[in-house]
Amino acid sequence: MIVPYTTTYFSPSKEYRRLSILMLIKEMPHSSQHLIAEKSHLSSSMVNIYIKELKQAGLITVSGSTNRTTEYHLTPTGQKKLFQDFISFSSEAVQIYASVKRKIIRLLKRYETNGIRTVVLYGASDTAEIVTSAIPHTRLVVIGIVDGDPAKQGQLFNGTLIQTPEAISQIDPDAVLITSFARQDEIYSNIEAIVGDNIKVITLTDLEHLQEPPLQEFARKTNKKATTNPIKQNATIKL
């Protein structure tokens, strides 16, 4: 099922709503219009309009005389339409994903020039999935993932064990990257309370760093830590 979303920049179009309803009918043919409305985040009256349009276009059939007996089924034309629309939807989604990934790669490369090499990701989220796919395009290395949600701790995220935030100091990365767009200030404060000034805390919204020179403050911290970490001491930056 295509999960409906509410957003400022990508408002669901009529085509998107039609696709969502077709997908719901395919997966739940016994659903009432009320349930379809609930799942698609539309009003029952709006769903009724779409159902009539889909039926008139020959994409679905409707049987039953009451809400309890009503069934919706895709016609062969409806099946073909669903497949074509899903491919188009997926293609657009991939383009958006790729655009976000390129932007994140640019940001991560900027952090490279500030001497950061090893990072811990804070937040085992969908955004972290994009970050981990962008990391191989940089010289950064993810050496740990932490999350404040006890339900996620102890689970695997792309093959890496999700640990508690308290493990950051023991992992000892160059920086902690907050992968969540929500509650960043709160997460930032929590991390600083754990690691103090010894480990840099960075976020995906620090876009201003794309035009700024290397962070001198962090360079001093890196030099201080290099005396106790031979791996970091021998790290060189090739631009």
Please describe what this structure looks like.
The structure is a single chain. Mean pLDDT is 82; it is low at 207-239. The chain contains 9 helices and 8 strands. The chain has helices spanning 14-27, 33-40, 44-56, 76-112, 126-134, 168-171, 184-195, 216-226, 230-233, and strands spanning 60-63, 71-74, 118-122, 141-146, 156-157, 160-163, 175-178, 200-203. It is an alpha/beta fold and 239 residues long.
Helix content: 40-55%
How are strands sequenced across the largest beta sheet?
5-6-4-3-7-8
Order of helices and strands: HHHEEHEHEEEHEHEHH
User: How is the quaternary structure best described?
Assistant: single chain
> What is the β-strand count?
8
Radius of gyration: 24 Å
Overall SS class: alpha/beta
Low-confidence stretches: 207-239
* Mean pLDDT reading: 82
User: What is the end-to-end distance?
Assistant: 45 Å
How big a fraction of the residues is strand? Answer: 5-15%
Main sheet?
Answer: 6 strands, mixed
What is the strand and helix layout of this fold?
Layout: H1 14-27, H2 33-40, H3 44-56, E1 60-63, E2 71-74, H4 76-112, E3 118-122, H5 126-134, E4 141-146, E5 156-157, E6 160-163, H6 168-171, E7 175-178, H7 184-195, E8 200-203, H8 216-226, H9 230-233
Parallel strand pairs: 3-4, 3-7, 4-6, 7-8
Antiparallel strand pairs: 1-2, 5-6
Give a quick summary of the entry.
Helices cover 47% and strands 14% of the residues. The chain has helices at residues 14-27, 33-40, 44-56, 76-112, 126-134, 168-171, 184-195, 216-226, 230-233; strands spanning 60-63, 71-74, 118-122, 141-146, 156-157, 160-163, 175-178, 200-203.
